TrEMBL record:
Gene Ontology BP, a term: sorocarp development
PROSITE patterns associated with the record: ABC_TM1F (PS50929), ABC_TRANSPORTER_1 (PS00211), ABC_TRANSPORTER_2 (PS50893)
Alphabetized CDD domains for the sequence: ABC_6TM_ABCC_D1, ABC_6TM_ABCC_D2, ABCC_MRP_domain1, ABCC_MRP_domain2
InterPro entries: AAA+_ATPase, ABC1_TM_dom, ABC1_TM_sf, ABC_transporter-like_ATP-bd, ABC_transporter-like_CS, ABC_transporter_C-like, ABCC_6TM_D1, ABCC_6TM_D2
Subcellular location as annotated: Membrane
This protein's name: ABC transporter C family protein
Domain ABC transmembrane type-1: 104-383, 727-1019
This protein's UniProt keywords: ATP-binding, Membrane, Nucleotide-binding, Repeat, Transmembrane, Transmembrane helix, Transport
GO MF annotation list: ABC-type transporter activity; ATP binding; ATP hydrolysis activity
Membrane-spanning residues: 104-123, 135-157, 231-254, 320-345, 723-740, 773-795, 876-893, 962-981, 987-1007
């Protein structure tokens, strides 16, 4: 606190605090207009450092990028074309584009190397003057010369870092931009090779490999050998031929170090393979978390991730072994080479004096860093070669081609067509072990321009694939395709982004209020927007997780309609909406004024609308039959017989005026009252703070605490092992450094004894004997030092890897057991960022920095003790110089910590857009929005790199000041040595200067590493945040975890369910989505739940699984309150077929039975029941056939049938079917209904459905509207009540199916 008061009074006397509410993010970087002096000492960044010290920085405080680093300029103007004919094409390309042109970085690094060679020569002259035992101006001038050479060298190093960062940022921004642009062009085969996990790993791990290599190592790899050679030449000058033997040892050791670096690189490459797989699985876990929870499969997926994490850590341990061997060799090499040099120097009969000894010691001290950095540079280039190869292979991956003739004009009598075409999902490169589905052997299709074409057929017949073929999204092996270029598309599983409802509909198009209102009304979004807290500005969760299936479909349809394209391609948008809304959509959207004159191609199972189509394409017995409704009827296709399957009551019971009602409704003159809410009163054009707060779903990512992360240090220390273990490692570092610096003291004694011997004119033989004695002691000290280095490296490495394992596993468990609301409020990219960037920091980057800190701290402690022992008078001045160190770091660290936190937070949106884009590639490409998404990626990436740039520029600001203080310490120590020259033992004075010189370097390096590690500890802090997120109530993923209520193995035995005044809300601040629901279900009853889309049907079903917790009331199953039992006990005893089916990557068997609980016979039996046996039988490896993430190659209907198979295998007493037949054709749906009746007859079945024929034979019908129970009775009783909601739905259903 005292230091803070001093800083505030002196340093901030004239500083004016910036208004925290002022948005300064448009302020140009002061670096662009800074003077030479300001750039030399980094004073241009001082205002930002002061601001960060006074209060936490905000984004508005950060300057814009310097002009030279702006991404558009870097990528568009500077990147150019990569020549893949060269060796290492990507690396050589970046050298040509960004390194050779960076003259300042090369210049400053060259100056630093020259100064490192000059400094020992200056020090030699200073020692000569000390040995004269006379105080002279000449000696003082050499002190000043030593100070100047040291200062110029250290300042040049800092500027070399800064300008090297320019190349690094240019490389990273170019690389990430090009990786993203390539992703937008991936075809289906390439997508099967490159999952989102692999692509994110390329951006994170491989991108960082390029970043850090092109920061320093790209130049040092060439300059460090020059520096080493120059220092060795100086060594020859000082010790003569003896230096050659030291040089030989060094030359021999360098290839050994290179070999170790190569082996470490191989291990790193192997670890990346498992890391890719781990991230892909975590991405799946995040995307499918709702389904994992429904099935109680969390443990299975955690085990799958750990199966990848285990080998990853094993390869990382092997990599660490090679790293510690390399570091052992590097840190001991200078001492060993000095030992050998002095041995041969003595062997040749030379007398070792103080000048020779300590000049040689200074040379080897200066050699220490290049000897450490050169192997590091070699290791990084070897790692970079692996990363470069991965990215080059990715860049060479096949892309989606233009295989469509877009010459079709939107005029009468024109046709979109496919002629004699063959298509292949795998682009002709399918693997025998994976699902490989051709669309058809040969396909011919036509759709008249400006008309409505409807496509129907059974599940898996190829309807969706036909649409993708028309859009060029599946590889055409032969044939011809002609289509319109301007297309609006709705997929069967809608693609929605984590932004507002309006932004999802506009999708990059300009806002046209009139058209926007028309689209909202046409897509029946009135009531939905009325219910949304922020109206049309309400934020939608990633993938629409906070919306019902019908809402998602209608928003996607609204997007396609608003785009005002020539052609609308719609993949079953009516499947997830109720009968009234389906009719409204067909009349007003698909066949309404906004679509008039457009070419419309609609896939649907709603056959009642076929008579309104201008052209029909029917998949029948693997053949595509086409024509008008009348033409197909004449060919023997009896649509009416299929529709009769959907009849809910005998036709004789219908009113006489049904036909007039049909005609009246199809004219669009009557609408449900719900659909007539005035939409213009519900949209929000002027967004105020109130609306912003209400519309917000995604929570802001936390930046962490404002302290220096001490809690993170403690957490990391506890995760690695016991405190005693860590203290023992620290003791080994101090003991090792004490032994090492004792060797310097021994050298001072040795050199002083030689000076005495020389003056006493002792014989050469006695000198040789004396040298042998000193060499033996010196050798013992060096060998002891090497042993201690090895021991401390091994123990610290095990400690760090254990901490990495514990932190990752705890975070994985916490995230998996987090409530579903957590995944609504946090984009998947943000969560993946924790498991990629932050875990990588903990796995790999903390260890070397922690080792450096312990090394520097032990060196500083031992050096100060030695200096105090040699000359107690220097202790007080040293302590005085410590104060500026503390002040500078105290000022710098708050700014640096906040910038690091901001850098971590702004990285998450980059991962989020990668994740979203990968999921919505087809929609983005069809709507031709690639350039908009590229610009959005660049915007997010530039913000992240901008903060990264200023974070490390403030680092240079601090380091420059510390280096100046360090050079002053050297000047002060040399002045004391000259002024208090020890005439009897000049070696002591020389040792004091050498120790001060080395200690100040270690202080600067230690402060830098403490700052860097504090920044890395931000990753530990971020991981800890996710470790401590609230878990679902009573969470348990194993049978061993207790619940507050004992549950027998037979529970539920009967399947009785009772809802008691149940109310549910998703957020504490939101209105209840279910309100006061009370009803009972008896054992083995079949219950149908109906209601308008978004009314709360799915929420009611999910409350049974406690995916959402009750805010009041309770649910009892067989008399037991489900809120009092563990979630595993609850969910593992129930079964569910969700509305949006999800298929995980892996085998067919793994998707059906991850715990291997069932035999092959049981699985095949249930596959046959759900009509999938034929499909699986024709797969390459049957049950062991691998399916990629998301079930690529399977239709949505087939995915739903796989989910139904899961439910049948479980044989649960309670089964929830949530729109389980929404994507099934009528015939398959009829078969599945029969299966459910026969094989689930002893189970209580709750069916959520929009298609009334699915639930009309239920024992009871529950009607829900706006979260309230409206009706609950048998179907017959409800239909007998003329004014009941259900009877009106039935009448409407009859009208639509007439």
């Amino acid at each position: 606190m005292i230091i803070d008061r001093i800083i505030n009074k002196l340093y901030f006397k004239k500083y004016t605090l910036i208004d925290s509410y002022q948005d300064n993010n448009d302020i140009a970087s002061p670096e662009d207009s800074a003077t030479v002096i300001e750039k030399l000492f980094y004073t241009w960044i001082e205002s930002l450092v002061k601001k960060g010290y006074r209060s936490p920085l905000q984004l508005r405080d950060i300057y814009q990028f310097p002009r030279r680093l702006q991404i558009d300029k870097t990528v568009d103007d500077g990147f150019g074309v990569v020549d893949y004919g060269r060796r290492w094409p990507l690396i050589s390309h970046f050298y040509r584009k960004f390194t050779i042109t960076n003259h300042l970085a090369i210049g400053f690094k060259t100056i630093a190397i020259v100064m490192s060679i000059v400094t020992p020569l200056v020090f030699k002259q200073l020692l000569n003057s000390i040995q004269t035992n006379q105080l002279s101006m000449h000696s003082l001038m050499w002190c000043i010369a030593l100070f100047v050479s040291s200062l110029i060298g250290t300042m040049s190093v800092q500027h070399g870092y800064h300008w090297g960062m320019t190349s690094a940022i240019q490389v990273k921004s170019s690389l990430v931009s090009k990786i993203y642009e390539k992703m937008l062009r991936l075809n289906n085969y390439s997508k099967s090779l490159y999952s989102i996990g692999k692509i994110m790993n390329m951006v994170s791990a491989d991108g960082d490999s390029f970043l850090y290599y092109f920061w320093d190592n790209h130049i040092e790899l060439f300059l460090l050998p020059i520096q080493i050679t120059g220092l060795l030449i100086v060594l020859f000058y000082v010790v003569g031929l003896a230096g050659l033997f030291g040089f030989i040892v060094m030359v021999v050791m360098l290839p050994v170090n290179t070999f170790l670096g190569g082996r470490a690189s191989v291990c790193y490459r192997e670890s990346l393979v498992y890391n890719d797989d781990r991230l892909s699985l975590i991405s799946e876990l995040i995307n499918g978390i709702q389904f994992l929870k429904l099935y109680a499969w969390e443990k299975s997926f955690i085990d799958r991730i750990k199966e990848k994490r285990g080998p990853q850590l094993q390869w990382q341990w092997k990599m660490v072994i090679y790293w510690l061997l390399s570091n052992l060799l590097t840190q001991s090499l200078s001492a060993v080479v000095l030992l050998i040099t002095l041995f041969f120097y003595s062997l040749f009969g030379h007398q070792l004096d103080v000048t020779i000894a300590f000049t040689s010691l200074t040379i080897f001290n200066n050699l220490r860093k290049p000897l450490e950095f050169l192997p590091e540079s070699i290791q990084r280039i070897l790692k970079l070669l692996e990363s470069s190869k991965r990215i080059e292979d990715y860049f060479k991956a096949p892309e989606i081609g233009i295989e469509i003739d877009y010459e079709v004009t939107n005029t009468e009598n024109e046709e979109i067509y496919i002629k004699n075409a063959h298509f292949d999902w795998t682009d002709g490169k399918g693997d025998a072990s994976t699902l490989n589905t051709n669309v058809t052997k040969e396909i011919n299709f036509r759709a008249p321009v400006g008309k409505l074409t409807m496509i129907c057929g059974s599940v898996g017949s190829g309807k969706s694939s036909l649409l993708l073929s028309l859009m060029g999204e599946i590889h055409k092996t032969c044939g011809e395709v002609r289509s319109l270029k301007s297309v609006g598309y709705t997929s069967q599983q809608p693609f929605l982004m984590g932004c507002s409802l309006r932004e999802n509909i506009l999708f990059g198009k300009p806002y046209d209020r009139k058209r926007y209102l028309q689209v909202l009304e046409a897509c029946a979004l009135n009531l939905d927007i009325h219910q949304f807290p922020g109206r049309d500005q309400t934020e939608i969760g990633e993938r629409g997780l906070n919306l019902s299936g019908g809402q998602k479909q209608r928003i996607a349809l609204a997007r396609a309609l608003y785009a005002d394209c020539q052609c609308l391609i719609m993949d079953d948008p009516l499947s997830a909406v109720d009968t009234r809304v389906a009719k409204h959509l067909f009349i007003n959207a698909i066949n309404g004024p906004l679509a008039e004159g457009k070419t419309r191609i609609l896939v649907t199972h709603q056959l009642q609308y076929l008579s309104s189509a201008d052209h029909i394409a029917l998949f029948h017995n693997d053949t595509l039959i086409q024509g008008t409704y009348e033409e197909l009827s004449q060919k023997g296709i009896n649509f009416q017989s299929i529709l009769d399957l959907k009849r809910l009551r005998p036709e004789s019971e219908e009113d006489d005026d049904d036909q007039s009602l049909i005609d009246h409704e199809l004219d669009g003159n009557t609408h449900d009252h719900d659909l007539k809410i005035p939409i213009d009163s519900l949209i929000v054009d002027q967004v105020d703070d109130g609306h912003m707060e209400m519309s917000k779903l995604i929570v802001e990512e936390e930046r962490g605490s404002s302290d220096f992360g001490y809690g993170s240090w403690l957490l990391y220390a506890r995760s690695g092992g016991s405190w005693y273990y860590f203290l023992f490692i620290t003791f080994l570092y101090v003991l090792g450094q004490l032994v090492f610096q004792s060797s310097d003291y021994w050298l001072a004694i040795w050199s002083q004894s030689k000076s005495t011997s020389l003056s006493d004119s002792q014989s050469l033989a006695s000198t040789a004997t004396s040298d042998s004695y000193y060499l033996k002691i010196y050798l013992i000290l060096i060998v002891s030092f090497i042993f201690l280095i090895g021991s401390r490296f091994v123990l610290l490495s095990r400690y760090a890897l254990n901490a990495a394992k514990v932190l990752h596993d705890h975070m994985l468990l916490s995230v998996t057991l987090a409530p579903c609301q957590f995944f609504l409020e946090n984009p998947s990219g943000r969560i993946l960022n924790r498991f990629s960037r932050d875990v990588t920091d903990i796995d790999i980057k903390i260890l070397p920095e922690l080792s450096d800190i312990l090394h520097c701290a032990s060196t500083i402690i031992v050096s100060m003790l030695i200096m105090a022992y040699l000359n107690p008078y220097i202790t007080l001045p040293l302590l005085v110089f410590v104060l500026p160190y503390v002040v500078v770091q105290r000022i710098y660290l708050p700014t640096s910590m906040e910038l690091k936190r901001m850098e971590a937070v702004t990285k998450s949106p980059v991962f989020s857009i990668l994740q979203e884009t990968y999921q919505g590639l087809i929609t983005i490409r069809v709507h031709q929005q690639q350039q908009r998404f590229i610009q959005e990626l660049r915007k997010r990436l530039e913000l992240n790199l901008r903060i990264f740039h200023f974070q490390y520029t403030t680092h240079r600001y601090m380091s420059m000041r510390l280096e100046i203080i360090s050079s002053l310490v050297v000047l002060f120590a040399s002045f004391i040595a000259v002024l208090q020259n020890n005439q009897e033992n000049p070696g002591i004075s020389s040792l004091m200067i050498t120790t001060a010189f080395g200690m100040t370097g270690f202080i600067s390096w230690g402060v830098k590493q403490v700052s860097d590690l504090s920044l890395k500890m931000n990753s530990v802090e971020r991981v800890n945040t996710y470790i401590n997120i609230p878990r679902e109530g009573g969470s348990g993923i194993s049978h061993e975890l207790p619940s507050s209520q004992q549950v027998s193995n037979e529970w539920p035995k009967n399947g009785n369910i009772e809802f008691k005044d149940l109310s549910v809300r998703y957020k504490n601040t939101s209105d209840p989505v279910l309100n006061g629901i009370t009803f009972s279900i008896q054992s083995q009853e079949k219950i149908g739940i109906v209601g308008r889309t978004g009314s709360g049907k799915t929420t009611l079903g999910f409350s049974l699984f406690r995916l959402v917790e009750a805010c009041s009331g309770q649910i009892e199953i067989d008399g037991q309150d489900i809120s009092q039992m563990s979630l595993y006990d609850l969910r593992s005893r129930l079964a569910c077929v969700p509305q949006d089916p999800f298929i995980f990557s892996g085998s067919i068997r793994g998707n059906l039975d991850p715990f291997n609980q069932f035999s092959d016979h049981e699985i095949w039996t249930n596959l046959e029941l759900v009509q999938l046996k034929k499909l699986v039988t024709h797969m390459p490896l049957k049950l062991n056939t691998h399916i990629s993430e998301g079930g690529s190659g399977l239709s949505v209907g087939q995915k739903q049938l796989f989910c139904l198979c899961r439910a049948l295998l479980r044989k649960s007493k309670i089964v929830l079917l949530d729109e389980s037949s929404a994507s099934l054709d009528f015939t398959t749906d009829s078969i599945i209904k029969s299966v459910i009746r026969n094989y689930l007859k002893e189970s209580t079945v709750i069916t959520v459905a929009h298609r009334l024929d699915t639930i009309i034979d239920s024992d009871k019908i529950l009607v829900i509207d706006q979260g309230q129970l409206i009706e609950f009775d048998s179907p017959q009783n409800l239909m007998n009540l003329k004014n009941s909601k259900f009877s009106k739905l039935v009448n409407a259903f009859h009208l639509h199916h007439k």
